[in-house]
Structures are given as structure tokens and as C-alpha cells.
């Protein structure tokens, strides 16, 4: 089975659209997301445009603030402080990566945790670690929702996550653990990656290497969630997994594009609505 993330995301977006309609009828203002983009990284520009489109579709207000790459750390921190204090703003997202002269750590720490729709603030990270209610990072959240939608129960399953980033690898591992999976986090220093991946009931790949995982890494009837967004030798979008090589071996797999990507944006919209409700009761 090919997991159609685009279609599943669209269904969720339509539900969120209804939620926003209910907000329109009952509140004096709409949920609002502010996205800050610094510099002109082409991938970031595309991501930000997609976020704006997602907001428009659902009926969330959005504001994209763009600065050139000379914008200073101090200016950015001041801007975040103003948005933190702006009662009409529910979600603040600073697009990563940031230029080298700006500390990612300082910036992520500066965002009010109840407006941190990325779920990257230490307060939200700690809550996720503790299994407490928090704003959860969008890509990991989207993956768990996909598994739910295909009625896959993680209880007692072997999950192998390849990649240990704060954005994807670590949080998705915690979420799977919360669902009673046995979780392994593998990474660039892992020995015998093939052997470890081959025991996975669910393999999650987030390493950014085009078509790295072929059938030798995959157990028969595994579920494969491919987070990679890469270009292959023909400049075509592809995942970390060699889709054609593994598709007949797996129980289910997310394609690239059209798998995890659309879910990430949708979860951002959901987090923005969640932040709105948390702040407005
Ligand atoms: N850059 C790539 N992915 C992300 C993300 O999930 N959030 C932010 N803020 N920047 C990103």
C-alpha cells in the first residue's frame, strides 16, 4: 500500500476548516500564524509559501515577515518579543535554518512557549519528554497521525528511527515510545545499520540521503515512513528510501512527494488552532 499523505492531509484540512468556521461564529477574532523568514534559501521560500497556502485554505490568518540575511540577532529577538506580546498572534514560527550569525538556540528560546507552534521551545520539548500535554513538532505529529489513519497500532512493535535531529528523529522516537513501541534511534555512527533496520516493523528514515535505503534494509511487510526530501541524479524529488526497489516488499510506504510533507503543514495548522484555544479558553 502506498500511503497517500496528500489525501489524508486534505481530509484533516477540511475538518480544520470546519473548526475555524466554528471559531468565526463564536470568537471576535481568528487564529493567526506569523512566519518569519530570514534570507532567501529557496527551499525555505517554498516551505513558507506552502504554509501561507495552508492557512488560506483553512481560514487561519497568516502573516509572512521576510528579512534579508543581514537582519541581526538582536533585531530578530526584539521582533519576537513584540509578537509574544501581541494578543492577536497565536502562533510564531521562525523558519530554519537561520543565517550563521543568528543563534538558533537563543531564537527558539525567545518564542513564548504557548505560541511555539513548531514545538521546539525547551518547555514544550520537556513536556513531550515527560509525556505531558504540549505543542508537538509537526513532522513527528504528522507521522503518528498517518499511522493512526491506516489503523496501525504501535503497541509492542519494533520501530527504528534513522536520524537523531531535534526536529524529527528525537521527537518521533518519544511519540512512538508513548504508544508502547520498542524504539531504536540509529544515526551516522551506528554500526551495522542494515541489520538494525531489517528488524523494524516500522522504519522511519530522516537522514537526507537520496534513495539510501534499498530492499536490503527492509523487513518483509514493514511500514516505511520516509521523511527525506532530496533530489535524485535527474534532479527529481525523492526520499531517503529507494521507493521502486522496496515498494513490493513493504506493507505500506509514504511516497516523496505526497507522503509526510503535506501532513507536516497540516499539523502546523492544527497546532495554530490548538494554540488559539489554549490562549482563549
Ligand atoms: N525548516 C525545516 N523544517 C522546519 C520546521 O519544521 N520548522 C521550522 N521552523 N523550520 C524548518
TrEMBL record:
InterPro entries referenced in this protein's UniProt entry, alphabetically: Aminoacid_DH-like_N_sf (IPR046346), NAD(P)-bd_dom_sf (IPR036291), THF_DH/CycHdrlase (IPR000672), THF_DH/CycHdrlase_cat_dom (IPR020630), THF_DH/CycHdrlase_CS (IPR020867), THF_DH/CycHdrlase_NAD-bd_dom (IPR020631)
One of the record's GO molecular function terms: methenyltetrahydrofolate cyclohydrolase activity
Residues annotated as domain Tetrahydrofolate dehydrogenase/cyclohydrolase NAD(P)-binding: 137-278
Residues binding NADP(+): 163-165, 229
Protein name per its UniProtKB record: Bifunctional protein FolD
Pathway: One-carbon metabolism; tetrahydrofolate interconversion
GO CC annotation, single: cytosol
Subunit structure comment from the entry: Homodimer.
Catalytic activity: (6R)-5,10-methylene-5,6,7,8-tetrahydrofolate + NADP(+) = (6R)-5,10-methenyltetrahydrofolate + NADPH; (6R)-5,10-methenyltetrahydrofolate + H2O = (6R)-10-formyltetrahydrofolate + H(+)
General function of this protein: Catalyzes the oxidation of 5,10-methylenetetrahydrofolate to 5,10-methenyltetrahydrofolate and then the hydrolysis of 5,10-methenyltetrahydrofolate to 10-formyltetrahydrofolate.
Top-level taxonomy: Bacteria, Bacillati, Bacillota, Erysipelotrichia, Erysipelotrichales
Annotated keywords: Amino-acid biosynthesis, Histidine biosynthesis, Hydrolase, Methionine biosynthesis, Multifunctional enzyme, NADP, One-carbon metabolism, Oxidoreductase, Purine biosynthesis
Keyword Iron listed: no
Signal peptide feature range: none
HAMAP family found in the cross-reference section: THF_DHG_CYH
EC number(s) stated in the UniProt entry for this protein: 1.5.1.5, 3.5.4.9
Similarity field: Belongs to the tetrahydrofolate dehydrogenase/cyclohydrolase family.
Record-annotated Tetrahydrofolate dehydrogenase/cyclohydrolase catalytic domain positions: 3-118
GO biological process: L-histidine biosynthetic process; methionine biosynthetic process; purine nucleotide biosynthetic process; tetrahydrofolate interconversion
Amino acid at each position: 500500500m502506498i500511503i497517500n499523505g496528500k489525501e489524508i492531509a486534505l481530509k484533516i484540512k477540511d475538518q480544520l476548516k470546519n473548526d475555524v468556521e466554528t471559531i468565526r461564529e463564536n470568537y471576535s477574532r481568528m487564529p493567526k500564524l506569523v512566519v518569519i523568514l530570514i534570507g532567501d534559501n529557496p527551499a525555505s521560500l517554498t516551505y513558507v509559501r506552502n504554509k501561507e497556502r495552508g492557512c488560506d485554505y483553512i481560514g487561519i490568518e497568516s502573516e509572512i515577515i521576510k528579512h534579508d540575511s543581514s537582519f541581526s540577532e538582536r533585531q530578530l529577538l526584539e521582533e519576537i518579543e513584540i509578537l509574544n506580546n501581541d494578543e492577536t498572534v497565536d502562533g510564531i514560527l521562525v523558519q530554519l535554518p537561520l543565517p550563521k550569525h543568528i543563534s538558533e538556540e537563543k531564537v527558539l528560546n525567545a518564542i513564548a512557549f504557548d505560541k511555539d507552534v513548531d514545538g521546539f521551545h525547551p518547555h514544550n520539548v520537556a513536556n513531550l519528554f515527560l509525556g505531558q500535554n504540549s505543542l508537538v513538532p509537526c513532522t513527528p505529529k504528522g507521522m503518528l497521525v498517518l499511522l493512526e489513519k491506516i489503523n496501525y497500532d504501535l503497541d509492542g512493535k519494533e520501530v527504528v528511527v534513522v536520524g537523531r535531529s531535534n526536529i524529527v528523529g528525537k521527537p518521533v522516537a518519544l511519540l512512538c515510545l508513548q504508544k508502547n513501541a520498542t524504539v531504536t534511534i540509529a544515526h551516522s555512527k551506528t554500526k551495522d545499520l542494515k541489520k538494525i533496520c531489517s528488524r523494524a516493523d516500522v522504519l522511519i528514515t530522516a537522514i537526507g540521503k537520496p534513495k539510501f535505503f534499498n530492499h536490503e534494509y527492509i523487513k518483509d511487510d514493514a511500514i516505511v515512513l520516509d521523511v527525506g526530501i532530496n533530489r535524485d541524479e535527474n534532479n527529481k524529488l525523492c526520499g531517503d528510501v529507494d521507493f521502486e526497489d522496496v515498494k513490493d516488499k513493504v506493507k505500506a510506504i509514504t511516497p516523496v512527494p505526497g507522503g509526510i510533507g503535506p501532513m507536516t503543514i497540516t499539523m502546523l495548522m492544527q497546532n495554530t488552532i490548538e494554540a488559539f484555544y489554549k490562549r482563549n479558553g
